[in-house]
Amino acid sequence: MKANSVSLDHGVRGHPAKNSTAAKLAGIVSRRWLSYVGLFVVMALGIGLDLGLAWYMMQITDTAVLKEKKAFIDLIVIGLCILLLSVTVNFFDSYLKSKVSNTLRNDLRIMTFHHMLRLPSSYFDKSHSGELLTRLTSDNQAIGQALGNTLMMLIRSPVMAVFSFIYLLSIYWPLAVVCGFIGPLTLLVGKVFGKALRENGKNVQDLVGKSTGFLQDVLSGNAVVKAFQLEQKFYGKYKAYSGRILARETKAGTLNATMQAASNGIGVSSFIIAFVLGAYFVINGKMTIGALIAFIQLLNHVTWPFTGLAGLWGSLQNALGSADRIFEVLEQRVEHTRLPESAANKEDERFVTLELDGLGFGYDDGKKMIENLSFTVEAGQMIALVGPSGAGKTTLFKLLLGLYRPTSGQIRLNGQATASMGLDRLRGFFSLVPQETYLFSGTFRENIADGRADATDEEILAAAKHAHAYDFIMKLPEGLDTEIGERGVKLSGGQKQRIAIARALLRNAPVLLLDEATAALDNKSEHLIQSALEKLMTGRTTFVIAHRLSTVQRADRILVMDNGQLAESGTHDELLAAKGLYSRLYHMQFKTQAEELG
Ligand code: ADP
């Protein structure tokens, strides 16, 4: 890790933090303390320069009034020095602010993604991916800005105001006292509007998140949109979303404008009062003209910070709304303490015995999906899972993979309870071909290589050949290096499935989970792949969820699931003879296929 990189752990793992959002943000900001030290040094120099400029204006005016030529020459040199310093300080001020803001945005982005990658499946069931996306994009942007310019200005303004006020007192205290009462009034304005702005800001971000999720659905499902002629419907829906965002933004605009106007009114009135009173004191000989000019310049620093503070406070509140949304993710309970390594293919665990002992499970809605499921699979066996749709077959795969925790009972792999095993180790046992093929944007090579990080080109090609994907890949001009498009849009269902099979073959884990792995293939391709899979299944424990007769018939044992329970188990012949659910399913579902296959 580089010296300036930060720890990715947010420190709050799994328990909603009691600290305020600001305190949590402070924790993140503190990791970049060195940059802030630089910013504070620049700020101190800037404040000194601003005060120096007021002094300079007083000196040069009084010198002109008194016609002191020698002092005038000295003041020209001092003026040049002030200019030079001011340009330098300005550069570093802007540079460091954008640096700290970009670095913190980067820190937060990777921290949030790192956390997201460790969140359990149940969290993703509840949250739309598009909505989660906005937390990494627009929320992240808002926070970055706030932690750079906004934060520094919020700190600088009151400090500058205090120093300017002290200087004002030294010039002519009665005038300073009168004006000094007015500036801080704007703080009250900020307090009144701040909360409303923050809540509104959070609402805007929530709406942006929802509409982004909606957009993502519509854009990636554009074929269905066209086929079902949903354009009008979705256009109306998006207009409604967009209108609600606009209404919220308009409200924020109104709140901001009112707040700014109130602060500005207070600022301007203090100026007018200062001018009128100042002129009166000059007429009465209590102040020089130079002192009045310095006074007005300094007053600018006493009132402007407060005036500007209201706007800054508003954008800080907005950013805190965004921070709330990011911390909501960062405080979710994670399933991994660190990112797992790809850990398949352990030679010493080739032969895996799998036992299910009184397994029970329900999703968050509390409904029991799997009840008291017990069976043992000997190492190297091929097991077929059949049953009506919704019986819980895929859910069982998810439990095996540790995507969800069983509510009762145990799963044991080679005698060891999976609950006492790290998730990395547990998932290392399995190679999955999911029901819904999911590929990532990138090339064929990259997608197959997702099966195993250290795979060689030969191994990738061998996996593609076994999955009968080699021929169609090689027909493309760029072969393995062809881009597959977003989630494989450029491929047919069967082609995608073959890539998913190649990926699983390459992973080469001891237990193979095939969830309708050949459902999208035609009979011929299925037959070819089946023989490849069978080679792979030897010496490996395999679970197959399939409707196709050919696969199921060859299984060492068929487990028939119904309503989350084991209804029957046995070989094809035994189950047919038993004339139970399997036999009924067989006659209903597999008969036609059996006839097709002859
Ligand atoms: P099968 O693979 O046997 O067709 P599944 O295991 O996919 O069945 O689903 C079993 C039941 O679990 C279904 O009724 C489905 O609605 C429900 N289910 C699946 N996934 C979830 C989820 N993430 N949250 C809530 N219910 C779910």
TrEMBL record:
User: What are the ABC transporter domain coordinates in residue numbering?
Assistant: 354-588
Q: Report the source organism.
A: Paenibacillus contaminans
- What keywords sit in the KW lines? ATP-binding, Cell membrane, Membrane, Nucleotide-binding, Transmembrane, Transmembrane helix, Transport
- The main place the protein resides is membrane
**Cellular localisation:** Cell membrane
Q: Domain (ABC transmembrane type-1): give its ranges.
A: 37-318
**Does Transport appear among the keywords?**
yes
Q: How does it sit in the membrane?
A: Multi-pass membrane protein
State the Gene Ontology terms under molecular function.
Answer: ABC-type oligopeptide transporter activity; ATP binding; ATP hydrolysis activity
According to UniProt, the name of this protein is: ABC transporter ATP-binding protein
* Residue stretches spanning the membrane: 33-59, 71-92, 161-189, 261-283, 289-313
Which positions make up the signal peptide?
Answer: none
Give the UniProt entry's GO cellular component terms. plasma membrane
Specify the domain of life of the species encoding this protein. Answer: Bacteria
**PANTHER family, alphabetized:** ATP-BINDING CASSETTE SUB-FAMILY B MEMBER 10, MITOCHONDRIAL, ATP-DEPENDENT PERMEASE MDL1, MITOCHONDRIAL
Q: Which Pfam families match?
A: ABC_membrane (PF00664), ABC_tran (PF00005)
